[in-house]
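User: Can you recover a sequence for this backbone? Please restate the input before giving your answer.

Assistant: Of course. Working from this structure:
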């Protein structure tokens, strides 16, 4: 035996060895096999009877205490089998306090038994600190055993042996433990089921391609057969024409042939038209009264703005209070308090960083450099000095007290002393002088961070948390060689009392980082990025201000265009006519109505407690402007269609009766679509949808009243020759139009294409009137038709309401021929046109002409945007779409776009990159880029288990813990097992288990942990004050519990404490400070692990009643560097939580700071489908109710759905992610898409003739209004958004709106007319009683 020789170890060496074995046992006691094997190993090496057969002393020295010869260095020969069994029994043992493997602490991170032996045998004198073996112990290996000696090969238990069984968390290789499933093989993208390669077309893409090819083949076949059928039909019609008289204008026969006869229009519209007629007459007669009443109503609604508030908190914006993540966050904060605030510095090297002779694996110079000129750690101490010196005055608004905020006063202090700063400087206790001594090199501390290089707040600092930029694969060499970044994190106390001080300090910290720290970084050729807890909210507020000018310019551009497009200029007028015929005042009124609608909607919503969002303020005006401007053009055009000789109230009444149902249909669809959006649980989307619905309804109401009244006032102004913006000034007729009669000069009406679409319904009403009722109007019409063409304009009086539409008129459609003596209103309008031609002189003659003008009264030429667009629709666009070849190409192209969008749909990603939500010049842009590039540790993850019964008679303890005696399938073991499969679960480490450490701390196997004096007071470990300064101070301290049996209260029955023992000693454990003698103390690692309650006698919530109310188990996610990583990680944790709760019968929940923000992405696809699908069904129902035609409603639904699908395809092509902002935009897009389509379909339904003719009439009536009111207006405004400073405007507003305008216009003005001309529904006509 070694002690029997002259070269025996000294007593000092032996006691040192015993002490360090005891320290290691503190870390390994949770696994009985490992703890036993570790102690047995050193006992065997020291005291084995056959020691001389495997130990060879190679050097000796004189002892200091006895001056005797002692061992200085010895070689130990151990068999590989023993070493492997020993290492395998300990390699997976978890030291829960730090979420790391114990081998990191007792083995220096050894990867095999030989590395572990080398670490254990390194003498302390060869280490920078006085920790290590008492003498150098070499382990040459079994193959190097000298002749005459035999390697030691003791029998030791494996970690799953029954006598020393460890839990599956510490011994996952045990046969009883379920290994993690193998990683899933990568799914091939290609459709391999049909023989395609793995990187070819997917099955979905292939299916869509085949369907599209089949569609094209069918389209060509149908076109060929339709050509043959069409030729036959024309010959048949020619033969019939010799035998049957043509109906008026040749329309009725064609309509009957195609649609099977006319159909009764919906009763809803029959009731609406008289109401709109009376409303228009009233607005025309009392315009100022109507405007005043509307102003009073809007003012009343705006009173709700007294409760107006804008919400910028991301949590309240995107997470409903009933969401699972929100409830879990609330539970966590109720139990453990709010998570601390985070301030962070990221310092990285650049290609210019010196010295650059040696490069890291990334190709950049390493950040850890030590030479006389360039020492980045020394530079970091200078930066830290600047942060430490930061002192900011503040006022606590709750108490009114003033003070100075410093980092030391606001930081998080787990042990009550030093700040818990996570920095590489902690390896030198945050002391520049300690670093300057050079005793601890960076490279050494990166390998011994858990032992010799602990932080100033007594906690180990993992290099992964303070260094970045190094590779995580096999190319990694060392932290010193490959790390390219310092990561400095300042946790700040988040308690309410500390909030004002923290906010003030954070503001000064940002200013310091932007100025002085950036200068220091530039001098060292380093890149500095930074963030504080308040940074995102501050930058979002700055974002709104930075783009307010851009938004204002966008609306101004649209206003200028509206004013230009509404105005017209008859040919032959003088330059002064522009001042009369312009519609700037009308356009300004329309835009004011939009603004007032939004303000009133915000007032009503605020009145009922709804807060506003930046999205509401930025999107709803755009949305309402799109709807309102379109209505403005439609109403103005409808008024221009009326007989100019009628009084203004009568004209306005007829205009509203003609256009009102179409406008009402679109507004009802939009309001319902947005209203259904209010059913979503996402607060920002819900508030936007409800406010948008209210705003659309208010805008509709104001358009039909205030704007209609404003049109009446403007008509009277034009008729009187008054200036647009200065109506008090009047131009003489001769000065305004020197070549025309006074009557013609002031006529602002245009006999635009499609005038007959409304009057034809009135013709049918007249056709069924009694002769006595129709006589007055017939006489007036006869007078108009018999007047000579050179006569003045006939003054036709407004029709008597009762004679025009008697109350007993029925909806009879048996005959299309009017009774004798009654001329149709269509005929009267034509006669009126002939008389007006005779009155036209000079520049008023010329009829239809090309160019930029349209037809004026009697065919005169009128200049302006709207007349030009009408001319384009009548002479170019509509005839072009009537050509069969164009229709064929149109269907092929649009169906192709739809198919491509369907193929792109699965590839639309979820998320919202932080950089996109911030201004382009924000300092956070660089921070988020660096964060994802350099960070090598994931966010902390907490598993919270409520209501753990601490009575050993209950099953809870063994169902939760993972030390010896716990269930194999316990909760901690399940989490540890999940950590072995991070690719699937995203869990990086085993959990920090306070319960495991408490059971180890209280165990008699660790005699230096739980200690008490004879009076029952807690004693610290021997290496802590006052025991380490005076032996007498702790001379009476003894271990709290012993092994054995019996009624002795100091005995732990079955190695588990009784409830009374837990109630007495668990508070001690939470107050115990970890140290070398006892590393299991709860201070620091478990400060916030249990819910505390000062009213409970134990200080722990619920413990006095036998249970811990709530406790958390900390672990970490793997590094998450993309939005998809965060989404997938959260989904994986949700799945793991649900499976574990079901398996163990517990109610555990996970919590991490990012969960609440990413929960929406788990359900955003589902919510979008329900939201948009429900809105589409609502649109179908409203259209059906208004049109009484499921056919027409289905066509609207089809085109709107295609617009939305193509917009999703644009999102994929343009890199727009699916998130709450996208859902808002898609909801808005649905409303505007309805606006694009509904008016054209409605005009098609009421137009006379066959499908092709009705399509052209609908485009002539509504195409120009859609093109001018929505397309060009929005296109002009959207282009301005491209210059926004904030990416979210450029990406989520400019790109989406630009795509929406192009897709909406192309579908509504190209695809929809083609569909209507080919498959349009039958004409809907009815007798409408206007009065």
């Amino acid at each position: 035996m070694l002690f029997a020789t002259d070269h025996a170890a000294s007593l000092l060496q032996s006691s040192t060895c015993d002490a360090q074995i005891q320290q290691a046992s503190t870390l390994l006691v949770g696994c009985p096999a490992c703890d036993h094997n570790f102690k047995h190993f050193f006992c065997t090496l020291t005291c084995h009877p056959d020691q001389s057969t495997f130990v060879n002393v190679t050097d000796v020295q004189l002892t200091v205490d006895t001056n005797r010869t002692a061992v200085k260095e010895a070689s130990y020969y151990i068999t590989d089998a023993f070493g492997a069994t020993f290492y395998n029994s300990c390699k997976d043992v978890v030291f829960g306090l730090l979420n790391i493997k114990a081998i990191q602490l007792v083995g220096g991170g050894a990867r095999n038994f030989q590395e572990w032996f080398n670490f254990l045998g390194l003498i302390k004198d060869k280490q920078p600190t006085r920790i290590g073996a008492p003498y150098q112990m070499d382990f040459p290996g079994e193959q190097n055993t000298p002749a005459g000696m035999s390697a030691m090969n003791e029998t030791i238990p494996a970690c799953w042996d029954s006598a020393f069984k460890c839990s599956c968390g510490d011994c996952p290789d045990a046969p009883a433990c379920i290994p993690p499933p193998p990683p899933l093989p990568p799914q091939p993208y290609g459709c391999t089921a049909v023989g395609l390669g793995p990187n070819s077309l997917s099955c979905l893409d292939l299916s869509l391609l085949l369907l599209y090819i089949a569609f094209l083949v069918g389209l060509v076949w149908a076109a060929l057969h339709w050509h043959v059928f069409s030729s036959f039909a024309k010959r048949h019609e020619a033969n019939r024409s010799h035998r049957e008289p043509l109906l008026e204008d040749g329309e009725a026969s064609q309509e009957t042939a195609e649609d099977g006869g006319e159909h009764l229009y919906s009763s809803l519209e029959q009731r609406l038209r008289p109401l709109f007629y009376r409303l228009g007459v009233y607005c025309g007669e009392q315009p100022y009264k109507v405007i005043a009443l509307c102003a009073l109503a809007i003012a009343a609604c705006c009173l709700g703005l007294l409760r107006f508030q804008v919400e910028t908190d991301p949590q309240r914006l995107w997470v409903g209070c009933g969401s699972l993540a929100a409830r879990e966050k609330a539970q966590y904060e109720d139990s453990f308090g709010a998570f601390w605030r985070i301030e962070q510095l990221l310092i990285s090297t650049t290609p210019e960083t010196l010295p650059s002779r040696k490069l890291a694996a990334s190709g950049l110079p390493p950040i850890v450099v030590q030479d006389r000129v360039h020492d980045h750690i020394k530079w970091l101490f200078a930066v830290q000095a600047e942060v430490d010196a930061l002192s900011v005055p503040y006022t606590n608004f709750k108490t009114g007290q003033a003070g100075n905020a410093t980092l030391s006063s606001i930081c998080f202090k787990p042990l009550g002393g030093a700040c818990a700063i996570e920095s590489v400087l902690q390896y030198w206790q945050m002391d520049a002088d300690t670093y300057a001594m050079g005793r601890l090199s960076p490279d050494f501390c990166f390998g011994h961070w858990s032992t010799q290089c602990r932080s100033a707040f007594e906690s180990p600092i993992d290099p992964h948390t303070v260094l970045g930029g190094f590779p995580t694969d096999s190319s990694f060499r060392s932290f010193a060689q490959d790390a390219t970044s310092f990561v400095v994190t300042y946790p700040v106390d988040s308690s309410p009392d500390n909030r004002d001080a923290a906010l003030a300090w954070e503001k000064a910290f940002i200013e310091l980082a932007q100025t002085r720290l950036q200068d220091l970084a530039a001098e060292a050729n380093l890149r500095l990025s930074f963030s504080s807890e308040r940074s995102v909210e501050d930058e979002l507020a700055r974002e709104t201000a930075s783009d307010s000018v851009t938004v204002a310019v966008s609306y101004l551009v649209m206003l200028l265009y509206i004013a230009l497009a509404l105005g017209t200029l008859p040919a032959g007028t003088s330059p002064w006519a522009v001042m009369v015929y312009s519609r700037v005042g009308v356009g300004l009124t329309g835009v004011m109505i939009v603004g007032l609608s939004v303000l009133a909607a915000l007032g009503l919503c605020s009145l009922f407690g709804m807060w506003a969002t930046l999205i509401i303020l930025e999107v709803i005006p755009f949305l309402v402007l799109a709807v309102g401007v379109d209505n403005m053009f439609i109403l103005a055009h409808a008024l221009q269609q009326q007989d100019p000789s009628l009084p203004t109230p009568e004209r306005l009444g007829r205009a509203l009766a003609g256009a009102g149902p179409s406008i009402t249909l679109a507004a009802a669809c939009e309001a319902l679509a947005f209203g259904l959006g209010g059913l979503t649980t996402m607060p920002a989307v819900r508030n936007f949808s409800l406010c948008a619905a209210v705003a659309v309804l208010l805008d509709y109401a104001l358009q039909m009243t205030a704007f209609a009244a404003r049109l009446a006032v403007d008509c009277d102004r034009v008729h009187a020759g008054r200036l647009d913006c200065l109506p008090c000034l009047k131009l003489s007729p001769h000065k305004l139009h020197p070549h025309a009669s006074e009557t013609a000069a002031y006529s602002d009406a245009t006999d635009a294409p499609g005038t007959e679409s409304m009057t034809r319904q009135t013709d049918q009403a007249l056709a069924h009137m009694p002769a006595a009722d129709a006589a007055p109007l017939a006489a007036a019409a006869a007078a108009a038709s018999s007047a000579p063409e050179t006569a003045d304009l006939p003054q036709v009086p407004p029709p008597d309401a009762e004679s025009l539409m008697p109350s007993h008129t029925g909806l009879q459609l048996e005959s299309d021929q009017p009774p004798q003596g009654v001329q149709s209103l269509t005929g009267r309008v034509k006669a009126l046109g002939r008389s007006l031609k005779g009155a036209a002189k000079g520049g008023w003659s010329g009829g239809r002409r090309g160019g930029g003008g349209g037809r004026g009264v009697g065919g005169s030429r009128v200049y302006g945007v709207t007349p030009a667009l009408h001319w384009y629709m009548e002479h170019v666009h509509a005839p072009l779409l009537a050509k069969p070849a164009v229709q064929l190409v149109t269907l092929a192209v649009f169906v192709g776009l739809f198919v491509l969008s369907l193929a792109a749909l699965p590839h639309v990603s979820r998320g919202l990159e932080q950089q996109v939500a911030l201004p382009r010049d924000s300092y956070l842009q660089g921070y988020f880029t660096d964060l994802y590039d350099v960070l090598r540790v994931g966010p902390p993850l907490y598993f919270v288990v409520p209501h753990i019964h601490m009575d050993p008679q209950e099953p809870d303890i063994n169902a939760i813990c993972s030390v010896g005696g716990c269930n194999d399938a316990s909760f901690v073991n399940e989490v540890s097992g999940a950590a072995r499969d991070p690719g699937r679960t995203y869990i990086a480490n085993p959990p920090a288990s306070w319960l495991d450490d408490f059971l180890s701390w209280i165990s008699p196997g660790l005699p230096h942990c739980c200690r008490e004096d004879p009076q029952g007071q807690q004693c610290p470990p021997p290496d802590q004050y006052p025991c380490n300064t005076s032996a007498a101070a702790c001379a009476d301290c003894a271990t709290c519990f012993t092994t054995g049996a019996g009624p002795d209260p100091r005995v732990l029955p079955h190695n588990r404490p009784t409830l009374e023992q837990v109630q007495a000693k668990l508070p001690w454990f939470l107050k115990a400070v970890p140290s070398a003698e006892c590393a299991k103390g709860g201070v620091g690692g478990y400060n916030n692990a249990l819910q505390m309650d000062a009213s409970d006698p134990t200080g722990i919530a619920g413990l006095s009643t036998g249970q811990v109310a709530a406790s958390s188990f900390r672990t970490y996610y793997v590094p998450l560097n993309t939005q998809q990583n965060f989404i997938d990680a959260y989904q994986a944790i949700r799945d793991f939580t649900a499976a574990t709760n079901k398996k163990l019968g517990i109610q555990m929940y996970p919590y991490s700071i990012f969960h609440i923000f990413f929960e929406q992405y788990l359900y955003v696809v589902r919510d979008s489908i329900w939201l948009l699908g429900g809105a589409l069904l609502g649109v179908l129902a409203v259209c059906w109710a208004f049109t009484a035609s499921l056919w027409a409603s289905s066509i609207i639904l089809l085109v709107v759905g295609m617009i939305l699908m193509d917009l999703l395809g644009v999102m994929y092509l343009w890199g727009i992610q699916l998130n709450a902002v996208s859902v808002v935009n898609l909801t808005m897009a649905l409303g505007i898409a309805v606006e694009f389509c509904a008016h054209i379909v409605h005009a098609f339904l009421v137009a006379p003739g066959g499908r092709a003719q009705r399509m052209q009439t609908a485009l002539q009536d509504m195409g120009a209004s859609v093109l001018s009111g929505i397309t060009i207006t929005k296109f002009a405004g959207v282009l301005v958004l491209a210059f926004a400073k904030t990416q979210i405007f450029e990406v989520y507003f400019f790109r989406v709106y630009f795509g929406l305008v192009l897709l909406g216009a192309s579908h509504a003005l190209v695809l929809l007319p083609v569909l209507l001309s080919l498959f349009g529904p039958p004409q809907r006509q009815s007798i409408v009683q206007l009065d």
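That completes the design. The first strand starts at residue 55 and ends at 62.
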